[in-house]
Design goal:
The protein is of the alpha+beta class and about 150 residues long. Helix content is about 50%, strand content about 20%. It is globular, with a radius of gyration of 18 Å.
Length: about 150
């Protein structure tokens, strides 16, 4: 089974069972962001976690196998039209150079890892309108000279 088919089955099962990523992740002691990413096919799950996810959703071993398979991380390179995803592109477009300057001033010449990485999404209640808090936490990887 390919990752696209796996994702379709997982999402339809999640909707059918009226589950949230927070609920599934909490019950399985996993990060909801990592869980969603693995179920959307962008990360591989260790075998035990893949089995736990498939079992939790009542899906077969072919889903667990697909969850554990290494992904090919390809995404549409066009600017997305979905408003939420577009805003993330807009943030990087407006603040990307600023973030690069500040990170390199603090750490030196290098990058933030997207491999040794975690991400959290939090809801901050505010009387003026609830706020989204994204926390991106990646290891700094300096460029090397040789």
């Amino acid at each position: 089974m390919d990752k696209l088919t796996m994702t379709d089955i997982i999402i339809s099962t999640k909707v059918e069972k009226n589950l949230s990523w927070e609920t599934i992740a909490g019950d399985l002691d996993m990060s909801p962001v990592w869980l969603a990413s693995a179920c959307l096919g962008m990360n591989s799950a260790p075998t035990a976690k893949a089995k736990a996810i498939a079992d939790y959703l009542g899906l077969g071993p072919e889903i667990a196998t697909a969850l554990a398979a290494y992904p090919t991380k390809i995404w549409d390179q066009a600017v997305p039209t979905d408003p939420l995803i577009y805003r993330l592109y807009e943030i990087v477009g407006v603040y990307g150079e600023t973030l690069k300057e500040v990170i390199q001033e603090k750490f030196g010449d290098g990058i933030m890892s997207a491999i040794d990485f975690s991400m959290d999404v939090d809801k901050i209640e505010d009387p003026k309108g609830d706020r989204v808090k994204l926390t991106l936490n990646g290891k700094f990887l300096p460029y090397k000279s040789w």
